Amino acid sequence: xxxxxxxxxxxxxxxxxxxxxxxxxxxxxxxxxxxxxxxxxxxxxxxxxxxxxxxxxxxxxxxxxxxxxxxxxxxxxxxxxxxxxxxxxxxxxxxxxxxxxxxxxxxxxxxxxxxxxxxxxxxxxxxxxxxxxxxxxxxxxxxxxxxxxxxxxxxxxxxxxxxxxxxxxxxxxxxxxxxxxxxxxxxxxxxxxxxxxxxxxxxxxxxxxxxxxxxxxxxxxxxxxxxxxxxxxxxxxxxxxxxxxxx
Length: 247
Prior knowledge:
Elements: H1 2-26, E1 50-57, E2 62-68, E3 81-85, H2 88-93, E4 97-102, E5 108-113, E6 121-128, E7 131-132, E8 138-142, E9 151-161, E10 164-173, E11 179-180, E12 183-187, E13 193-198, E14 200-205, E15 208-213, E16 219-220, E17 225-233, E18 244-246
Antiparallel strand pairs: 1-2, 2-5, 3-4, 3-6, 6-7, 6-8, 9-10, 10-17, 11-16, 12-15, 12-18, 13-17, 14-15
């Protein structure tokens, strides 16, 4: 009997020892998972992402100077589009746009919107890609009346060759007041492009071209005049240009 009890006791002792080992293992808790630290929240500076101002007008065009101030995520990347509307209500609602012009890769510059109605008011806004800028709604800006043209421009083809020509444009003040600044605009009829220009500053928007005075020839007394010249490349034989001159 004592022998049997000893065997039972030994078996019980071994069982308890194994159970104690199991408890010891269960007491080891897994290390808690690290809580991710949130990154800093990016705050956009208190500035408009793009700005624009009216620069000049002719009877059929308006030129806007733009500046893309901020880049994504707070602003836009070029190209940028200036869009014209016939009323502030249409501009506010982004409906019934009447004309537009698209910039190149530059973050600032001048955009000329052509094909407009003389002596008419317009409001302008900006868009970039599929994003409409929600801030800038500017206007009204007005095209010149036909009768208010302060100058006259004529073009002379000096030389023509296969693939291009050289031309001189004469600008004359036809008003009774001194003209402080002028611009000449026209629209190409084909694939023309200016390869060189002197005595003026050119800007283009699609087929529309605007040449403004240089720093030294913008002041014209009544009846006074000046000229600028250009080399034009084209694959076709073209006729004369239809020029519009204004302040």
